Amino acid sequence: MMLVKPLLSSSIELDIYSDDDESTVFVDENLVSQALMNLCINARDAMNDSGKLSIRLASKTVEIDELQSCRDVCELQPGNYVVISVEDEGCGMSDDVADRVFEPFYSTKEVGHGTGLGLSMVFGAAEEHGGCVRVKSKLGEGSTFELYLPVASNEVESDEGVDEVEDAPITGGDETVLVAEDDASVRDITIRSLESAGYNVVAAVDGQDAITKIDQNLNAIQFALIDVVMPYKNGREVAEHLAKVRPDMQVLFCSGYDVQSNTSTWEKTSPKLQVLSKPIDPSSLLRTIREMLDSNTGQLIA
């Protein structure tokens, strides 16, 4: 569970269990990985970085009578599902909060400690796969979130004709990386992932802060990971500043949309950019950063 461990403090006990069923589900790996990370971040914050977090992977058959009796199993069809559950020992939620927890921008966290989009993204990921997410919670006794993913109707009987590519082993490093990201949850995931791989991190909360941090750590920073859309200064403006003060700096952009086609942020004459699309799987992020550092082919906006 290398996706989850970097998100948790050492005072949180992580318990993982999977049943022996070998059901097949077809999923967008990045989307489901991000959904799982968001659930774990939510659980971690509910426990104030202390307690037990349990992750379960199991198969379940949903019957028609369950659909009729459970108001919190939404838009599910009777059938077989793989269920990923995340359970915490945190503060729990009232029924009123539980009813609204998947609404976009709804958050019970303090200002600056979340966007209110994490759980709505989990809900969206479930619907994207024809599944659903349900929550069980009691105030003062913790919460359990269950992500339902439908089992594939036709099992894959043969691997013939299917190209299988072994993932290259993930290696870290000791370089110093600038992380410029205004979303606190995404920034937290990124920092923990990089630090767990041995990197040093200089974090910036918006574009102007990124420029300030660059100037303060001009000779220390060896790589820049920059969000495209940020307050005060966007990713291009940060990269342009880097091109002036550190023309040797490698830059990797991250974005939730197609930056190449957005002429309000990027000119049509811009060179081909190195961009990772959100949601970003930490494994893909670490692999891309290492490959760019080793090949020295990062992209600068000149």
Automatic annotation (TrEMBL):
Biological processes, Gene Ontology terms: phosphorelay signal transduction system
Organism: Rhodopirellula sallentina SM41
Domain Histidine kinase residues, every copy: 1-153
EC number, UniProt record: 2.7.13.3
Pfam family for this entry, one: HATPase_c
SMART domains per the UniProt record, alphabetical: HATPase_c, REC
Keyword Lyase: no
Domain Response regulatory: start-end pairs: 176-293
Name used for this protein in its record: histidine kinase
InterPro entries linked to this entry: CheY-like_superfamily, HATPase_C_sf, HATPase_dom, His_kinase_dom, Sig_transdc_His_kin-like_C, Sig_transdc_resp-reg_receiver
